[in-house]
């Protein structure tokens, strides 16, 4: 029997906790589980916070959270899983940022914590207690970390940037309406 070290057990616990929380949030968006809105309800909400089209935004966020979270928990394709989850959490943090840091005020604390933990796991790797190890790290190569984060950063910048422009135009339209 193999004895695993504390690092492997710690990474397993981080993966299970972070991945489980992310997967549950994604399931809320995709399926309406755990009190979530499902694609329709989440899509309508996404429109109100500037992510459009809402249904596509809900699907993308739900897949990044549920898929990235499940893969993180399993320790499978860890660089891509962590990067996808971190990107989704960056989008969530952008929504909550105007409310400050702390969660009780509606801030970005929770999204930042999940995103940073997912990113840290993508960089550190899944540890020995993972499917990546069982599969010979075929989907967990060093170059994949850089590629996954580059792709995620580009996609996140485009999506969050489009949201920011949409919200700015809406505010400008409201201000013009006040002076008419």
UniProtKB/TrEMBL annotation:
Pfam families: DoxX. InterPro entries: DoxX (IPR032808), DoxX-like_oxidoreductase (IPR051907). Keywords: Cell membrane, Membrane, Signal, Transmembrane, Transmembrane helix. The chain crosses the membrane at residues 70-95, 107-131, 143-162. Residues 1-23 form the signal peptide. One of its GO terms (cellular component) is plasma membrane. The keyword Cell membrane applies. It is found in: Cell membrane. Coiled coil: none annotated. The keyword S-adenosyl-L-methionine does not apply. It comes from the Bacteria. It is a multi-pass membrane protein. Belongs to the DoxX family. PANTHER family: INNER MEMBRANE PROTEIN YPHA-RELATED, OXIDOREDUCTASE CATD-RELATED. This is Putative oxidoreductase. It comes from Streptomyces prasinopilosus. The lineage of its organism: Bacteria, Bacillati, Actinomycetota, Actinomycetes, Kitasatosporales.
